[in-house]
Design a protein that fits this description.
By secondary structure, this protein is an alpha/beta fold. The chain is 34% helix and 22% strand. It starts with a strand and ends with a helix.
Amino acid sequence: MPVTVAALYQFTPFEDHVALREPLLALCEEVGTKGTLLLASEGINGTIAGSENAIAQVLAHIRALPGCAGLEVKFSHAETMPFHRMKVRLKREIVTMGEPDIDPLASVGRYVDPHDWNALISDPDTVVIDTRNDYEVATGTFRGAVDPHTKSFREFPEWFRAHRDELLEGHKKVAMFCTGGIRCEKSTSFLRKEGIEEVYHLKGGILKYLEEMPQEESLWDGECFVFDERVTVRHGLEPGDYDLCRACRRPISEEDKASPAYVEGISCPHCIDERDEVQRARYAERQRQRELARKRDAAHSQGK
């Protein structure tokens, strides 16, 4: 597949993250990458896509930034460009948890290699927690994992504090996982701060596990939601079967699309009751413009 996709993050204290934005964006635009990168005083996070050479140039630039020599990167590939534009955004946090005293550079859980993960989560002494949001968990998760049913990562600390006793009853170890590993940097740091000693997290996240683990040995069921136009990936990081609702940005299955609640670009079974008529009218106009653009592109291609 011709498009290289790089998911990356690095926690490192930037003295002036604002000054890093323009040179990084200029390079990304020059070499033709697309995607989103987040810059904050605590580091960098994001996913970009482009040619192999373009990605290599951007990664070389990021690795030259203070504290980024050991940048965590997970590669996959796509048939077509999975992003529409290139954005470099300035944020307060590169992954928003809302716990200002959490510092992944000071204390995190123990990293577990994908090939050692099965043994850990199969141990009866281990409680396994999926730190992702509910719509992500819905497309797939590890067998036996606890789903917090959170709408955003900000809800995780409150959820854990409310359910701590029942989660830890009969368990000595806590194992957590997320898409690429970054949320677990903060969630394991948070649990350590809450006094939990035996905290573990999947190194490289679900993406690394799906890349390295043979399907016949896997304890993963379903597909993994990714934040680009591929929507989900399967073992071997092959593109999955889900589509995306353009109204609410949630993953939708073929069954969802067969529902009377599904209208392309306007509503799906997940958001039909969450939007009012004014919002749906706006979505309908956006969908009309999208379809016009598709027709123009098709006509242009035929003209060639």
